[in-house]
Write a structure and sequence with these properties.
Blueprint (H helix, E strand, L loop, with lengths): L2 H8 L8 H9 L6 E2 L5 E2 L2 H17 L3 H12 L27 E2 L1 H8 L3 H9 L11 E2 L2 H12 L9 H23 L3 H31 L3
Antiparallel strand pairs: 1-2, 3-4
């Protein structure tokens, strides 16, 4: 099977997978397709299943590649592999199940959707990473925040370590508010809609800028 064939087979289950991702998994030693006489990668069915295993472990359990590589080595040796108990709730196309925009969710619902414990959600709330209203309900985006915090916890980050991320986000939101405030102040519904759309676009641009600056800083770590 060619790399394009593997990609086509995996796309329905993993819409975000790319040829670059498949090559990266090979570079990391998770799969070793043989080469044809002309140098093209040729994947066996077993190779495709190893990739599916790796992508599933990343998507559902946020496992780092070194752990997945060790698990595959154990399976190759005939040893059993303990699967982590925490997993994301996903749809058939691999997307995280989240509440509709504007929805409010309880701590219990967050736990059900993310696999977090109530004490973990409470610790995140105390650190200001998720904020409940007076009725104890959280914005729908809290589900994604909790998932991200749980993933970082695998690397030793606690909610208190992430307070600076929250503070930075709040500062950036203040800057965005200064830009869109004149539109929002207008009385027409159309102006308010443009204000919301512009704020969302600016938030996306800020997120992209932050991600690239962070990658640049990490690259310079040596």
């Amino acid at each position: 099977m060619s790399i394009g064939g593997v990609l086509a087979a995996l796309k329905p289950e993993f819409p975000a997978v790319t040829i670059s991702k498949l090559r990266f998994l090979e570079e990391q030693g998770l799969v070793a397709p043989h080469r044809s006489g002309s140098g093209y990668r040729m994947y066996s069915r077993a190779d495709a299943e190893r990739i599916r295993y790796a992508l599933t472990a990343q998507r559902d359990s946020y496992l780092p590649l070194r752990v997945i590589r060790d698990q595959l080595a154990d399976l190759d040796a005939g040893r059993s592999v303990e699967q982590p108990g925490r997993a994301r709730v996903v749809t058939r196309d691999g997307e995280l199940v989240v509440p509709a925009p504007g929805a409010r969710v309880s701590a219990a619902e967050i736990c059900e959707l993310t696999g977090a414990t109530e004490s973990e959600v409470d610790e995140m709330a105390q650190a200001g990473l998720v904020l409940a209203d007076t009725r104890g309900r959280f914005p729908g985006r809290a589900v994604q925040v909790v998932q991200a915090v749980l993933a970082l916890a695998r690397f030793g980050f606690s909610p208190r370590h992430l307070r600076t991320v929250r503070t930075s986000a709040e500062r950036e939101a203040d800057l965005i508010d200064q830009v869109v405030a004149p539109l929002r102040a207008q009385r027409s519904g159309a102006a308010r809609e443009r204000s919301a759309a512009q704020a969302a676009e600016l938030a996306e641009l800020y997120a992209r800028l932050h991600a690239e600056l962070l990658r640049t800083a990490v690259d310079q770590l040596g």
